[in-house]
């Protein structure tokens, strides 16, 4: 929505707030102010229903006719777009069909810069072919792999070996720990070396949120939900009161041209 290609997703840049939700930091490497055309697109089911064929839910009407703008069913809520009577007649499983979905991704952004962290660099950055917003979905795949298995998927013995692995090595999942098929399928879709075939390149976050791995997540109310882990508040100890304190007499030791006095917890150096 803001037209930002982050380009440096890694654990060090993900902060946990006091309410348990996460936020990104360090936008120094990000590609900002990219052109974004927020568009509401319909699910394919809408086009097959003659009763809805005349309705277009687009901010940019031409997007409805573009193959890349095809939308999948939303995972959150169902707005009241149709008559109340027709809504009652629909079964719960059919309510999500044909609901417009917002797509706001900087898909046209392009850069030739070589930026990022070696283990998280996308293949197109390493090869110098130019890159766009798809690099963020690659780094998300690397990030998820590290969360699941404790290490990045293409790490080599050094930076050079890592870069070669990113470009040439096939993705292989460790045998342990055991992970779900949905988790592996999501990572596999994000770590496609060809950016045009990568998950999220067409509809961005809207496409990824539809993956079965996120089944049951209410994206519309995600900011209001309670995370599985909420940091415990720790009371900071009050600073020690200033005033005279009793300390044992300091002993002196001469080292070279410096006189060292041991004064309790610290050492005082006197140079002459």
From TrEMBL:
Domain of life per record: Eukaryota
Domain Protein kinase: 1-214
Reaction it catalyzes: L-threonyl-[protein] + ATP = O-phospho-L-threonyl-[protein] + ADP + H(+); L-seryl-[protein] + ATP = O-phospho-L-seryl-[protein] + ADP + H(+)
Molecular function GO labels: ATP binding; protein serine/threonine kinase activity
Keywords for this protein: ATP-binding, Kinase, Nucleotide-binding, Serine/threonine-protein kinase, Transferase
TM region(s), chain numbering: none
Record bears the keyword Kinase: yes
EC numbers: 2.7.11.1
Gene3D superfamilies registered for this protein in UniProt: Transferase(Phosphotransferase) domain 1
PROSITE patterns reported for this sequence: PROTEIN_KINASE_DOM, PROTEIN_KINASE_ST
Pfam families: Pkinase
Family: Belongs to the protein kinase superfamily. AGC Ser/Thr protein kinase family.
PANTHER family hit by this protein: FLIPPASE KINASE 1-RELATED
Protein's name according to its UniProt entry: non-specific serine/threonine protein kinase
Organism per entry: Aegilops tauschii subsp. strangulata (Goatgrass)
């Amino acid at each position: 929505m803001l037209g930002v290609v982050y380009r440096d997703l890694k654990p060090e840049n993900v902060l946990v707030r006091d309410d348990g939700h996460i936020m990104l930091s360090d936008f120094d490497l990000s590609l900002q102010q990219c052109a974004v055309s927020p568009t509401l697109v319909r699910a394919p089911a809408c086009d097959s229903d003659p009763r809805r064929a005349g309705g277009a839910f687009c901010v940019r009407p031409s997007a409805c006719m573009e193959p890349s703008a095809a939308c999948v069913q939303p995972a959150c809520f169902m707005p009241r777009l149709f008559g109340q009577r027709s809504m009652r007649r629909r079964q719960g499983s059919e309510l999500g069909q044909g609901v417009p979905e917002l797509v706001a991704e900087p898909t046209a952004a392009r850069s030739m810069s070589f930026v990022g962290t070696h283990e998280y660099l996308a293949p197109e950055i390493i090869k110098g072919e130019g890159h766009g917003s798809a690099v963020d979905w690659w780094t998300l795949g690397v990030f998820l792999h590290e969360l699941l298995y404790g290490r990045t998927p293409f790490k080599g013995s050094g930076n050079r070996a890592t870069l070669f692995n990113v470009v040439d090595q096939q993705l292989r999942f460790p045998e342990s720990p055991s992970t779900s098929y949905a988790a592996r399928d999501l990572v596999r879709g994000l770590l496609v070396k060809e950016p045009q075939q990568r998950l999220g390149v067409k509809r961005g976050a809207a496409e990824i949120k539809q993956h079965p791995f996120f089944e049951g997540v209410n994206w519309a109310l995600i900011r209001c939900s309670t995370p599985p882990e909420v940091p415990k508040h720790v009371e900071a100890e009050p600073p020690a009161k200033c005033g005279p304190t009793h300390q044992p007499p300091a002993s002196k030791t001469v080292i070279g041209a410096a006189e060292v006095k041991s004064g309790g917890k610290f050492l005082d150096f006197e140079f002459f």
